[in-house]
Amino acid sequence: MNTVRNFLLRLVFIVLLLGLWEAAVRLLEIPAFLLPTPSAVGMALYRGTVTGLYQEHIGVTLMETAFGFIFGSLGGLLLGTCVALSRRFDYFIYPIVVMFQAMPKVALAPLIIVWFGLGMTSKVVNSALVCFFPLMINTIVGLRSADEDRISLMRSLAATPIQIFTMLRVPNALPYIFAGLEIAMIFALIGAIVGEFVGAQAGLGMLIQSMNFTMDVAGQFSILLILSVVGLVLNMSVTLVRKRLLFWDPASRQAGIRPDKN
Amino acid sequence: MIAVRHLSKRFGTEAAPVLALSEIDFTVDEGELVVVVGPSGCGKSTLLRILAGLLPQSTGQAFLHGTKITGPRRDIGVVFQSPVLFPWRSVLNNALLPVDVQRLGRDTMRAKAMNLLKLVGLEGFEHRFPWELSGGMQQRVALVRGLIHDPALLLMDEPFGALDAMTRESMNQELQRIWMERKKTVLFITHSIGEAVYLADRVLVMTPRPGRIADVLKIDLPRPRGLDVMNTPEFGAYVKRIRTGLNASGGIE
């Protein structure tokens, strides 16, 4: 019961806040191109949705984000595994990768548009590049963090290096990999949006850009609202998979609170 | 059964070597429970790691069933000080880890694992996960895992050292019961003199710097030994002799 009451209280608080915002804009006569009223944002959201305009662009952005996430994560996973396993890879490739990581990837977006065009490909590439790193780093750390005692145990059973990898290192790395995936999911969305800012024919980022030119601030607010919901849903879906798969991980088990020892 | 001959282990650099084990010589007979007792830093864990094939010796040899121990082998089971369970595996699957690693066939070994879990009093916990178990229960799972592949030799490295005193005593009783039932050859390492005398057929007393065997003691106490055996004068005499041996060689400071 308590949770229902809390939920209602939160709802009342949000409604109150929106009412305050609406009243302030109207009373202080703030121009619509600076700060729209919540009702105007709602109207923009409604208009964009009934015409099907928003759905179309959400679809494009989601598609770019999904492909960027998949390619970027797979790449990060693969390269991370290589670096964690091979000393040679670590020695030669890792410094280059770290150097590349120090550079803000979004700064590459204009170049990528030139190389891959205004279509979806360039956004997918941009998105993949941005979400590649958190996954690679977490994969490396995860694969290398296997407990010494557990490795001793596996070795004492005459396990092969491949068995130590598949039966110990990989499951041990999963909590790290999933933490990376949660970050990568949001990064993928950021990468897609930034790509759309720089040059695109469709997508929510492009829509924000074009609304900015026409001073449609209420419209931009409505898209920001959509983006935060999209980001939330994407993040929650990864979290959901993590909690199901990593039920044994203290971080997943105890609702985000990591105990001192497992 | 096990024969250790002139075994030495040096750590450190060529220029400044540290002698961890010096000329260790002993044998363990088939079905015997031998306990190595010594203070921390006397090299007893190093000895165990060499016998488990996890660490190479510097000189000398160790034999199991007449073959030299040159690396990890399938006929040795190890129980470490911490249970070292995999949190993503259930109790049963943790017990079956050696079966998976050595591809012994889950179907046939499953029943055996269930039997062993029953033997250590974990019936009904097969599908629980390690983090749902107490420390003592976790160490029982580790014991089952050490026994599941029917190793010729079970090495135990202070397996109950991390448990509270009362749990430890009951685990010692339990180990004695299981050992009497299974007649495994066990080499058990501890720094507790009482634990050594209570469990052992024979006690090897180790002293540090360099680690060497200072005394070998046959424990002639009837089995099964109850916990009250610790209050008998015979038990006290054994404890006293070991303690004197350790003190004389500066083992305990």
Structural summary, described in words:
The complex is a heterodimer of chains A (262) and B (253). By secondary structure, chain A is an all-alpha fold. Chain A contains 11 helices and no strands. In chain A, helix 2 (38-50) crosses helix 10 (217-245), helix 3 runs parallel beside helix 6 (120-144) and helix 5 packs across helix 6. Residues 255-262 of chain A have low confidence and may be disordered. Chain A has a single domain, classed as MetI-like fold (Orthogonal Bundle). By secondary structure, chain B is of the alpha/beta class. Chain B has one domain: P-loop containing nucleotide triphosphate hydrolases (Rossmann fold, 3-Layer(aba) Sandwich). Chain B is 34% helix and 25% strand. Chain B has a 6-stranded mixed β-sheet, sandwiched between helices. In chain B, strands 2-1-4-5 form a 4-stranded antiparallel β-sheet, with helices on one face. In chain B, strand 4 (59-64) and strand 5 form a beta hairpin. In chain B, helix 7 crosses helix 8. Chain B is globular, with a radius of gyration of 18 Å. The model of chain B has no long low-confidence stretch (mean pLDDT 89). Chain A binds chain B through residues 147, 149-150, 152-159, 163, 167-168, 171, 174, 246, 248-250, 253, 262, and chain B through 49, 52-54, 71-74, 76, 78, 80, 82, 84, 86-88, 97-98, 100-102, 129, 131, 149.
